[in-house]
Structures are given as structure tokens and as C-alpha cells.
Amino acid sequence: SVSFDVLLSIRTGTVVSSSGGVDGSANGGSSVPGGVDFHCDQIVSPGAFFVEYSRADVDEISERIAEGEFTSLTFAFPGDRFQLFEVEFDGEFDGLMRLTFGYDQSLLPAGFDENGLVMYHFTHGVWEALSSVVDAAAHTITVETASLSPFGVGVAEVDRKSTRLNSSHQIISY
């Protein structure tokens, strides 16, 4: 449930108190769905790293869009739940942060090729596809980013001839 995921995020945030490079995790790390591992070469000021994970249905996506949290999705996502990660660091870092997201493979359609997953980042008012490294055996996606905000599991490209999407960009058959 969403409320459990939020509570879990609050309880498992990682305090980053050192400057320089740092590694850490939130929500149990990338070995579990909804967990995230992070690495940053340069922490400028200490802070706390938090992740809120949601398996958002169409109603939750619509509510978050209406509240201005992000704009309509401009990409397809596999299954009937959008795996959404709200990533925050209340300190300051310089350069890129490497994030490894643990996704829930049980939410993917039967027969779906996990290597077609890509992480999308909502930044500067738009969803952007990030260069993503998928480890299908570990069910993780690794990206590098210079900023933190909502991230979502999507699909790189959709073959419109063999894939059916509904109006919410969900892949409903593959």
C-alpha cells in the first residue's frame, strides 16, 4: 500500500554526514522492489537521502498530475501499475549521482523483456528518458543524474503493431 511505502521511506532514509564520496541506500537497497542504492563522488553539504516508492494506478497518477507533482506521462509503462520513485536529498551534491533502482518484476506483463525498461526522470517540467543499464537478473535499473525528483519505470520504445496501450500509456498486452 502507498501509506506503508511512505512510512517505510521515512524510517529508512540515510543520513549522509560526510563530505567527499559516499555510498548508501534507502528502502532496503536495490535488492528489493522500491529500494534504491546511491553513489555520489562529491557531497558538498550533509543531508538525508530519502526515497518514496509507489506502485501507482491510473487514479493515483491522475491525482498527482492534478496536484502539479508532475505532468502527464509522455511514455509507456509496462503493466497496470506505474513504478514511481520520489528521490530526495536535502543536502547538496556536486556532479552526478548514480542511482540503482530495484523494480518489481511481478508488475510486468507476462513475456515482457525487462531489457526494454528505461528510467524516466521528471526534470525542468518534462519527463526525460535517462541512459539506463538494466540488470534483468537482479531486477535493477542504474542511471546517473545531476538532479533528484520523481523517477519512473517506463519502456524505451513501443512497437505499436504488437503492443496495445490504453489512454494512460499503460501497456495492456505485449
What does this structure look like?
With 174 residues, the protein is mainly beta. Helix content is 11%, strand content 46%. The strands form three sheets. It has a six-stranded antiparallel β-sheet. Strands 2, 3, 7, 8, 11 and 12 form a six-stranded antiparallel β-sheet that branches. Strand 11 (133-135) and strand 12 (140-145) form a beta hairpin.
Topology as a string of helices (H) and strands (E): HEEEEHEEEEEEEEEEE
Main sheet: strand order: 1-4-6-13-9-10
Radius of gyration, in Å, reads 16 Å
The chain-level structural class is mainly beta
User: What is the overall pLDDT average?
Assistant: 85
Strand content: over 45%
Number of helices: 2
Q: What is the number of beta strands?
A: 15
Percent range of helical residues? 10-25%
Characterize the quaternary organization of these chains: single chain
- Principal-axis shape: globular
For the termini, the CA-CA separation is 27 Å
Largest sheet: 6 strands, antiparallel
Low-confidence residue ranges:
1-11, 159-165
